[in-house]
Design a protein that fits this description.
With 116 residues, this protein is an alpha+beta fold. The protein is built from 2 helices and 4 strands; from the N terminus they run ααββββ. It has one domain. The chain has a 4-stranded antiparallel β-sheet with strand order 1-2-3-4, covered by helices on one side.
């Protein structure tokens, strides 16, 4: 009987505990087909660039790279946002331009140096 009461009490307490939240990049996950605004995609692109630097996938000089262009392009599955960052301080001169792709609603797709 004590075990049942203890289990019920723990279950009740868990329902009042705070929900785990996603990391800083979690705010750029959208549902539905409503197109994202340029302001939203600009913010998400900056967050994604920062996350790539933090994860060690980009060198630290990318932290200060500026967003050059943001355009809507035709992708494999329809319209996509293409954000372009430039970093003249990049050690590899062939990788001074970073392209970050988002779906039309604003979800991250990919990041690369080729723009493809």
């Amino acid at each position: 009987m004590k075990a049942i009461l203890l289990t019920a009490a723990l279950a009740a307490l868990q329902s009042f505990s705070p929900v785990a939240l996603a990391d800083k990049g979690g705010s750029c996950h959208f549902h539905g087909k409503t197109p994202a605004t340029q302001a939203v995609v600009t913010d998400c692109a900056t967050q994604r660039r920062d996350a790539l630097v933090k994860a060690g996938k980009l060198e630290s000089s990318w932290q200060s790279a500026t967003l050059g262009t943001l355009e809507l392009v035709d992708g494999k599955k329809g319209k996509e946002w293409k954000a372009t960052f430039t970093n003249p301080a990049a050690a590899d001169k062939t990788k001074q331009t970073l392209y970050v792709f988002f779906s039309h609603p604003g979800n991250f797709i990919a990041a690369n140096f080729t723009g493809q």
